[in-house]
Amino acid sequence: MKYEDPGLRDLLAAEYVLGTMKPLTRARFERLMRDDASLRRLVGAWEDYFSPLDTALAPVMPPARLWRRLSRATAPRQSLWQRPGPWRVLTGLTSTAALALLAWLLFVPGPAPRVVAVLNLQGGQPGWVALEQGGELHLAVAGAAAPDPAHDYELWAIAGGPPRPIGVLPRDRGLIIPAGSLSPGVVLAVSLEPRGGSPTGLPTGPVLSQARLGART
Amino acid sequence: MTDDPADPAALSVALARISAGDHAAFERLYRATSAKLFAIALRTTGNRDSAEEVLQEVFTAIWQNAARYDPHRGAPMAWLTTMVRHAAIDRLRRGAVRGEGREAPEEALLQLPASAASAADRGVMLSALNRCLETLEAPQRRAILLAYTQGYTHEELASALATPLGTIKSWVRRGLERLKRCLDG
User: Cα dist. B112→A27, A210, B115, B148 in Å?
Assistant: First the structure.
């Protein structure tokens, strides 16, 4: 597609804002937007054009439980490991998830691991936790359910360009990522792929979770 | 104006602080924007439970990706609105049932000059959008309003307006082009 054509760029921006793009097209367009400030401005202009339709809308208070849930799911995690009783971090997880993490922590010798990313699932509960220890990164399973037999989870790193495959997550344990292969600021994403991993080298299934590495540790 | 937590500058500051992990700023942003965003999610999904899940998803994403907001792109509220509308549309695409008894999309236009704050500005913008939508043929206008306010896909528009998919796509495209010419003119 010729993304240099001004008419086409504007039309794509308009369809993006209108919401009629198919999800895959929209994801591709969002990747283009990331490196293209003028495309972001076109989108901003279309958002402004349509905004009177939203400003006119009467606000509706969401139920109070929504903030309680969000607050629990997003409460700062940086200090948890330093608090008396480092196991505090486990209280936010489901009991199975907590057990899985606990098991992993107990059997890994050396300095205490540091949480460098929490990959939440759709409902806001943690699916995976990335822990850094001695330069090595471990992606531990937190609340994510095992994939069905026809599928695997695959981990990706996104740093501006297309997602880079890191590895298919083992079905029965976390994934160890060698030191130095990921830098802080990179976005980790987990997608659902056919058994054995994406056949194309790019995510083919839904992205279940993503988080920026080291954003808040 | 600067004391208003929903002021664009205040929201930009909140987003910048959130990207640095400031949870209090996250709460400020939530308090300032959630009622408006909930109304938008509700308009699209027509269902309180779905709208609540949409907000949960979007605010979780904001906490994780606030750094992705580009202040040069436009007002923070516009960025948040697009995130909410897209998340709501995705839910509908994944098979969430649309709420029943939705109002006609043209109703959105009638509700327009409701708020007191900077009513003059809004009135001007509103009338510009309204005036330009008026230049579209009725089915084109309806298709664009249904897509914007209720998240209709091309396929849903084709079925709701009993019109072939290809025609719908060109209506939307031509409608948007015409809208742009009118709004810029």
Answer: 32, 37, 8, 15
